[in-house]
Amino acid sequence: MEATTLSAGFRPLLKPGGYRFPRSCSQRNSSSLVRCHSKEASGGFIKPKPEGSIAITHRKLSFKTNVFEQARSVSGDCSYDDATAKTRSHVAEDKIGVLLLNLGGPETLNDVQPFLYNLFADPDIIRLPRPFQFLQGTIAKFISVVRAPKSKEGYAAIGGGSPLRKITDEQADAIRMALEAKNISANVYVGMRYWFPFTEEAVQQIKKDKITRLVVLPLYPQYSISTTGSSIRVLQDLFRKDPYLAGVPVAIIQSWYQRRGYVNSMADLIEKELQKFSDPNEVMIFFSAHGVPVSYVENAGDPYQKQMEECIDLIMDELKSRGVLNDHKLAYQSRVGPVQWLKPYTDEVLVDLGKKGVKSLLAVPVSFVSEHIETLEEIDMEYRELALESGVENWGRVPALGLTASFITDLADAVIESLPSAEAMVSEDSESSDVFSYIVKMFFGSILAFVLLLSPKMFHAFRNHLI
Ligand SMILES: C=CC1=C(C)c2cc3[nH]c(cc4nc(cc5[nH]c(cc1n2)c(C)c5CCC(=O)O)C(CCC(=O)O)=C4C)c(C)c3C=C
Ligand SMILES: [Fe+2]
């Protein structure tokens, strides 16, 4: 991935003085926006010791020093073997943590409305103009109450709650074991954005466990402001407030849809499901991604759509290289509310394909890596029925990656590759700008207090009061 992935479009979403998204470097088999740099490029961050081991210094790096430029200027760094070797040498001194970020889901029907409240109260989900932001809570309350009955029906249809927590816990365990198999001992934490275990709880545990280096791995292959972006914003706020956490080196894997391991694992699953049709060559491969409002992409610079399209191209190229030459289509599902979402919409495309005479269709959920309400209810029930009504005769669905071994191993590799690039999340810049704004406030506050106290009225009031 090129550093251009860090489009200027992200910037307006960041608070002034806050954490800047890490710079990326082009590397083979890389995950997007994982910084990687050699010892030279790290600017003293990783110090080689005479006996060959590597010590980490907790230097507060400013991202303005442009790690990307440094990384680019040093050739050939950050290969997989290199990263693994560096990481192994850290093991003795490091306490490594991996934080998996996910959305979270209601575990019972009673959880549905408060879960929806948390979701709609997120300013990255409902993006209100600044003057109206004070209404966020009220709007969230209103929408969550209105939507709850429909959502509850969906969750009731899949057994009364979301399977997300259980699956994510299992993925955490599997990643821990995959790391162990590669001689990396790490604690793996789960931090959910809208339900238990919340990101805040995971971060508290990370602190209690005295983790010295952290890799943040959002379980969304593609980056969206509404998913990975939102979770990272929360994390950034938590780390900024806490002096211990502010010094912990962190590597954030912002997106990983382009990793060979992920692409190959998706291709494997698709190939396998195609074989279940009586005539596999005739099947339309139908990618269905979770949508986002168009304004995210067009006004706020969300790279989600672009990454999604690239992701589908990579999977189709891989299939082609295996001799699978089926037609394919990408559409977006799960829109909420009256605004325009990314098109084409899954439901409309299904009707259209049915009308055009497509008889066999394989649905592929592509924006999420565990089963959830939108695969189990929306795709398996609603869309299947719609497709069959519209003339499709043979329907299949690719399961979510879940615990697929090749996928889990690849995530473990992504973690290992990102370790050498971990840096303190809170830069000196943001700290010094905090201090600066504190001094400015104190200065003008004192002048104001002085003026008020010395104004004749105040002076008399004071004197009368004191005498
Ligand atoms: C990449 C995945 C997702 C994106 C992008 C995304 C954006 C987004 N979602 C909503 C509103 C809702 N999402 C809901 C559930 C839900 N969303 C995702 C993933 C993405 N969302 C998942 C995996 C789930 C399911 C969790 C589970 O419990 O299984 C819901 C609740 C369910 C429902 O009522 O439909 C809502 C609401 C918005 C508005 C949005 C972008 C702005
Ligand atoms: Fe969603």
Show the helix and strand layout.
Layout: E1 46-48, E2 54-56, H1 67-73, H2 80-90, E3 96-102, H3 112-120, H4 136-157, H5 164-181, E4 186-192, H6 199-208, E5 213-218, H7 225-241, H8 243-246, E6 249-252, H9 260-274, E7 284-290, H10 294-298, H11 304-321, E8 328-333, H12 346-355, E9 360-365, H13 373-389, E10 394-397, H14 405-418, E11 423-424, H15 428-454, H16 456-466
The protein binds ligand L6N33NVT and fe (ii) ion.
Fe (ii) ion binds next to loops.
Give an account of the 3D structure.
The structure is a single chain. The protein is an alpha/beta fold. It folds into four domains: 201 residues, 3-Layer(aba) Sandwich (Rossmann fold); 49 residues, no CATH class; 146 residues, 3-Layer(aba) Sandwich (Rossmann fold); 35 residues. Helices cover 46% and strands 12% of the residues. The chain contains 16 helices and eleven strands. The strands form three sheets. It has a five-stranded mixed β-sheet, with helices on both faces. The N and C termini lie far apart (73 Å). It binds the ligand C=CC1=C(C)c2cc3[nH]c(cc4nc(cc5[nH]c(cc1n2)c(C)c5CCC(=O)O)C(CCC(=O)O)=C4C)c(C)c3C=C and fe (ii) ion. Fe (ii) ion binds next to loops.
The main pleated sheet reads as: 5 strands, mixed
* Count of alpha and pi helical runs: 16
Q: Which structural class do the helices and strands define?
A: alpha/beta
Count of the separate structural domains: 4
Cross-sheet strand order for the largest sheet? 4-3-5-6-11
pLDDT averaged residue by residue: 80
Low-confidence stretches: 1-30, 33-82, 84-92, 461-467
Beta content = 5-15%
The geometry reads as globular
Ends: how far apart?
A: 73 Å
One letter per element, helices H and strands E, the order comes to EEHHEHHHEHEHHEHEHHEHEHEHEHH
Rg, alpha carbons: 25 Å
Total strand segments: 11
Question: Helical amount among residues, as a percent range?
Answer: 40-55%
CATH architecture of the largest domain: 3-Layer(aba) Sandwich
- CATH class type of the largest domain: Alpha Beta
CATH topology of the largest domain: Rossmann fold
The distinct ligands, each listed once, are: the ligand C=CC1=C(C)c2cc3[nH]c(cc4nc(cc5[nH]c(cc1n2)c(C)c5CCC(=O)O)C(CCC(=O)O)=C4C)c(C)c3C=C, fe (ii) ion
Keywords: Chloroplast, Heme biosynthesis, Iron, Lyase, Membrane, Plastid, Porphyrin biosynthesis, Transmembrane, Transmembrane helix
GO biological process, one term: heme biosynthetic process
InterPro entries: Ferrochelatase (IPR001015), Ferrochelatase_AS (IPR019772), Ferrochelatase_C (IPR033644), Ferrochelatase_N (IPR033659)
Subcellular location: Plastid, Chloroplast membrane; Plastid, Chloroplast thylakoid membrane
